[in-house]
Amino acid sequence: MEKYYLNLTADNKFDAGSKAVKDCYQILKENGFKNYDINNKKEGNKIVKKIYNICALRKFYGFPNDSLIVFPHPIYTETQYINILKKIKEKKNLTYVFLIHDLETLRGLFLDDKEKFELWDKTMLEIADYIISHNDKMTEYLVDYGIPKDRIFDLEVFDYLYPNENTITYDKSVLLAGNLNPQKSNYISQLKNIKNVNFELYGVNCSDECLADNVNYNGAFPPDDVPAQLTKGFGLVWDGSSVDECTGNTGNYLRYNNPHKLSLYLASGIPVIVWKQSAEAGFVEKYNVGFAVESLNELTDIMSDMTEEKYFDIVKNVKDVSNKVRNGYFLSKSLETIKKL
User: Fold this and answer.
1) Who's near 280: CB < 8 A, 6+ residues apart?
2) Can you list the pairs that 110-117 forms with residues at least 24 positions away whose Cβ atoms lie under 8 Å?
3) pLDDT (tens digit per residue) in 175-202
4) Which CATH architecture has domain 3-128?
5) How much is the pTM?
6) How confident is the model at residue 123 (pLDDT cuts 50, 70, 90)?
């Protein structure tokens, strides 16, 4: 059986896509899957783009019969994409594995395209032979939808390929990396009100209104360079408008997804802080790599009690998980199981 993974490029730019997607491609390649490129046009005349992309999608018909194919989900392209996959599956006796990066019907981020994403998610679930889900909470959602549990494999956490092992320094500060726009995540502007806790921010769109004596901005770095900056303290995974709980669509989505930010912190080697009602709270507690809290105001007491000895006990646990995350262990584990079926 031939094994492939779909690599959708944009305007023939092979660096397109997030680090999460690109790391998955690299891990798939290392597990014996061949690259199958399809170029998607995103720039230029709207009608020309649509015609070009529909024609490009017909390259799906080139998959050899009886192949095993891994698709990232979703693929942000023409609606016809998912229908073409449905048509050729039986014709060529193809086995489909969908690696979920996001479930937009759960995330609710693109409300104008709600119907399109509902179609993509619905059809993907109908035609998938196997699904690589984020975690047990997302798997529960898929099972409730009607997908047999024996067709779903939990990733647990996204890998974050990074060649170096950082030297970690004891520190009680809380680090936050990512999009720092307070309009997207208003809780960031409230961090200054959390008593006796220092915050270090890394990323784009930082607003002066978020900064204070206990909130410092350290600049923005490319995804492959960020881990080298995160060598102390605790990494924070939070979203929404409040420090008391994760709210809104993005906050609720944490109940189901694996934030890539969590993987970044673990690859860097630092302990993490997550929302107690998030899906990944179970992962954090299972591997004892940090704290799960209901409110960020709990950090005052946590940091007050944090000794150097306690800190490095957690760092030791993180080191074991970090080595796996940095080397593609979690996706490889799911792929190996699927290849044996």
Assistant:
1) 135, 157, 237, 254, 258, 259, 262, 274
2) 116/79, 117/74
3) 999 999 988 899 999 999 999 999 999 9
4) 3-Layer(aba) Sandwich (3.40)
5) 0.93
6) confident
Segment 19-39, tens digit of pLDDT: 999 999 999 999 999 999 887
- Residue extents of the structural domains in the chain: 3-128, 169-326
DSSP state of 269: T
Structure-token pair, residue 239: 């979203």
- Distant-in-sequence, close-in-space partners of 340: CB < 8 Å, separation ≥ 6: none
The answer to whether the bond into 227 is cis (omega within 30° of 0) is: no
User: Residue 314, SS3?
Assistant: helix
Token code pair at residue 227: 């881990």
Nearest residue to 211 via CA among 197, 190, 231 = 190
Which residue matches tokens 């690259």?
35
List the 215-217 sheet strands across, edge first: 215-217, 199-204, 169-179, 232-236, 272-275, 290-293
Q: Does domain 169-326 have CATH number 1.10.10.250?
A: no
